[in-house]
Write a structure and sequence with these properties.
Layout: H1 3-7, H2 16-26, E1 37-38, E2 44-45, E3 83-84, H3 93-105, E4 111-114, H4 123-134, E5 139-142, H5 147-156, E6 167-171, H6 173-180, H7 187-204, E7 208-214, H8 216-220, H9 225-245, H10 250-254, E8 257-263, H11 267-288, E9 299-303, H12 315-330, E10 334-336, H13 349-365, H14 379-401, H15 405-410, H16 413-430, H17 473-489, E11 494-499, H18 503-518, E12 523-526, H19 533-543, E13 547-551, H20 554-571, E14 576-580, H21 585-594, E15 596-600, H22 606-625
Parallel strand pairs: 3-10, 4-5, 5-6, 6-7, 7-8, 8-9, 9-10, 11-12, 11-13, 13-14, 14-15
Antiparallel strand pairs: 1-2
Keywords: Cobalamin, Cobalt, Isomerase
Organism: Mesobacillus campisalis
Cofactor: adenosylcob(III)alamin
Amino acid sequence: MKLEEVKNMAFPRATMEDWSTKAEESLKGRNIESLAKHTYENIQLKPLYSREDIDVSHLSGYPGQADFRRGIHASGYQGHSWHVANRINYATLEDLEEKAKKAFSSGQTALAFEADAKLFADEERLCRLIADYSNKGPLSIIADGVQDTFIKTAAKGAGGAESMATGFIAADPVAEAAGAGGFPKEEKDVFAEWEQTLRFADTSFPDVKTILVNTAPYHNAGANAVQELGIALGTGVFYIQSLLDNGWDLERALGKLVFHFSIGGNFFMEIAKLRAARLLWNKVAEAYGADGESGKMTISAETSLFTKTVFDPYVNLLRAGNEAFAAVLGGIQYLSVSPLDIASGRSTAFSERIARNTQLILKAEAHLERVADPSGGSWYIESVTQELAEKAWGYFLQIEEREGVLAALKSNWLQEAISTVRAERDKDVFLRKQSIIGTNVYANAAEQAKAKPVEVEESKAAFKPLAAWRLSQPYEELRFKAAAIEEKTGSKPALGLICLGNLKQYKGRMDFITGFLASGGIGTQKSPDVEKTETAFDFIETSNLKHFCLCGDDQQYSQLAVELAKEISVRYPDVSVALAGYPGMEDRQALTQAGIKNFYHMKSSQYESLSHLLNEMEVANHGQKA
């Protein structure tokens, strides 16, 4: 074939039917619609997306153009790269200084931390720190509860002149109240004093943003993306309206906002969330009559605490990497990647360095800062962005119908709505419809970890406070309970596996139950191959255990399990016997009558099963002690 002919060749355009047919070939007879998935945002994800799934006339043509879903800068990250703003964990001001120095020498580009009252012990030193790092990059400081003191202290370092600092020293009183269940003083006094702080900051730090719209507390309580976006809009509108009522110029007020999002594990949904956030805020700014540039949303993001685990913490590296990747593709300006051991409440120099290097790899090795809007052109992302924006706008209107975000919190409507979503998430984890690697699947039962102390404070809450949560917490509590039993008894909680027949017959269910139990910190003891009932009796007597599970194939269950269970219940009345699998109704009835207490199978609520089993083991051990 001649070169000219090759140049003129064209591939025929594939239709959706062509793609569907091709996909179904690999599904071995299953319909492609079986791949559809329903999300916590009540969005039905289709297996295939095409141009027909989005009205392209509504899409902004280029990044930097309204509605800014494709980013707030025309050149993307090439001209305005995101800031590496990993939040510095510190014990003292000296510790903060030392860690900041090390971080900036290793790739950090923004001074990022949560301000704390202990920083004010040496005001001169704090002023020097802020002044020094303001020359090295922007600030990324969350100052909830101490914003007024922090800004006034930092302003002393500017000698009364306007500071050249950029970035944000911001607080979100609404999010603070959501977490605490109310305000520390009269609500009107809180906002009157805060408005004065914002005015002072506008004079001393004119280029520093001071109003934070922080959705992380709602995310960490279990909210879905629609709720996060609706709450962000409601909070932003509340602040803008408050400033306008106090005589602020609209553009000046809009310029003081920075939105902070927590990025979860649903990769494409999180990208769409950030894109939809910019789209929606631009619409809000337009509704207020702001000029085009004022409608740009500045976004700070952090990797999710909600998705992190205490056990098997190195898996958190992968989770944080996935979340950071989504944040960058979504178009953020500041990013904090959490250390792998964040769930334990402690971090090390190693884990902090790895977290920082995650961002540097995305910049320098994945070259993400060289591409403007990397996710643009994906019909899937564009479609989800649009649907998410529409649902979030509807949720925002529901909040406004309840007289705004504060009223929605005071009535507990918002908390109950978030609690409903979290209950759905928990249920899916308990049933293992959603996997948490190292926690509810592929857990290492031999792993040791100390329980993180939980501080319970007396609260005079005016309304129900939002509690931070992690999906893995219920399982971690089971693991800590198993560890407590081991500490009291000197032996690890374990269940005896009575293996019926030969290895081929029982291995599948033996492996299943071993993994099932490991998620609760429960070990297993395997019997010899049981061909005769006496082998099982010998194992029960020598194992010194009180809980056992029959493992075998359906044939073994029908031939041996019923009679064996009957004899065990007669010989060993204080022993509890379960079965791995879920036979048909008739067989289950016979097995239950024979003495089988539980059936462990793929549709079991793993958490409830493990919780019940550990409770029984705890009671049995107390009985032995007595």
